[in-house]
Amino acid sequence: MLQRIVLLSTLSLCLIACASVDETLLYDIDFEPPYNREGSLLQLDDGPIPRHGVSEIKSNGSTIVSSTAGWRGHAGMMENGPGTPGRSTYAQYEFDIDGIEDVLPGSDFGTYRVTFDLMIIEFGIEEHDFTILFDTPTVRNVYFRSNGSVRAWTGHNSQSSPNVFDIGEWFGVRIDTDLVGQTVSVWVDGSPEITDLPLNATELDEIRFSLGGGDGPRSTAAIDNIQIWGIPTTEEPAN
Fold it and tell me: What is the Cα–Cα distance from 147 to 129, expressed in whole angstroms?
């Protein structure tokens, strides 16, 4: 038993010590003051790393900062629609990745890690999703669906995992997009749900967080603690 404890302690120390020290925090958004204000649009920010705002807001719905009771402090409130027949509505945050080279000359990121907290408050119709779009530039998507499942789609490949979250409950998400190993992996509340799905892409221009699409009643979600990290090509992504 003592030997097992020593081995586990050594492994824990190794995981801490061996974790990549060269990961770069590119975006860090917690929706809190002073960067953001109650009832306002999320701040736009093209300043130095780390950026505390999004590159662009694309929405014909609603995207505001809110501190509604029961949420984790301030969060991003996203609503689409309601749509009308033939008119698609959505709410979307866009993060520039291609332009990082202008801010960090010589950066060579082979993996991009996205982490955030999400709560789907309501899907107006089953066809609505909360989607993370990776513009590579051909789009690769991770969908959080109305039935509580997560699905990743990379053009010719897809992978799904059922019953990973509940409507009306917060859950944590991590997505690793490995441009060198050509894979995408997804964790929900620390559990691996999508593992090493072939990515079929070698560059990444933008990352977008999108709610809705299509017509139908309004869908609503809250998002918080968005972080996007760049990991150099020579580094192995930390587990």
Answer: 10
